[in-house]
Specification:
The chain is 28% helix and 22% strand. It is an alpha+beta fold. The chain has one domain. The two termini are 15 Å apart. Pfam families: SapC. Keywords: Plasmid. It comes from Aliisedimentitalea scapharcae.
Amino acid sequence: MKRLLFMPVQQLFYNTAVPVSAQRHGDLSISMGKSYSFASKTNSIPVTALEFGPAASDHPIVFAGVGDDAVPAIIVGTRNDENLAVDSDGQWSGTYIPAFARRYPFIFSLDEEKQQFTLLLDEEYEGANREGRGERLFDSEGEQTVYLKSLLKFLQEYQAGFARTQAFCKRLIELDLLTPMQAQFSLPAGENRTLGGFKVVDREKLKALPGDTLAELCSKDELECIYLHLASLRHFRNMLERTQPVATQDPMEPATDDVEPEADS
């Protein structure tokens, strides 16, 4: 049985990310296009708590991290270098595209003092050019264009959502609600796959929480996020069927479409 570890990377997709500046990028244009080929070699993509609603309609949402760190992410493949949501033409086949992917080729970097963000650009992005295709980052005077200003606003909103998500994950850890899990699949050809290295909310521990704690989670919309996360786990079956339409679940393993993945031993 092949075990596949889910290990999200904060700078996923990015190859050569450098600070954006008028000196370096004064004549640079960005042609965004509609290709998500850059995301085709990963089986997980981070999401924020604000994205749980739309993301839960398409993909399993799980939590990954080591120790006291936890990052929510959608699972999009059963192999480490596989994204079943991106087809051979680079088109995203699902109904929701995570903001983490939509912000590429840009990303914020936090300095060592964690006081200031710097906008970075992956210069290896295929849409980056100096031939005037797409949108300029700076005008002829070296000032930020409307496009760059709107981009900065989007990334600032994303960062605010990420901060809220960190607080949500910290709360789950404090309440000891996360438990290691794994999803197991059996293919018609006889191949067995195990996807592990992630955590989910423990239903029994959630039920055992005192009423005032549940009320607090509800008042912060965190209880809704928990329910969306748990409901999304049914998509493990749908995800597998994207690549193996006749795939069947091993009768000795729990069915991932109506039973949560089994706990790691």
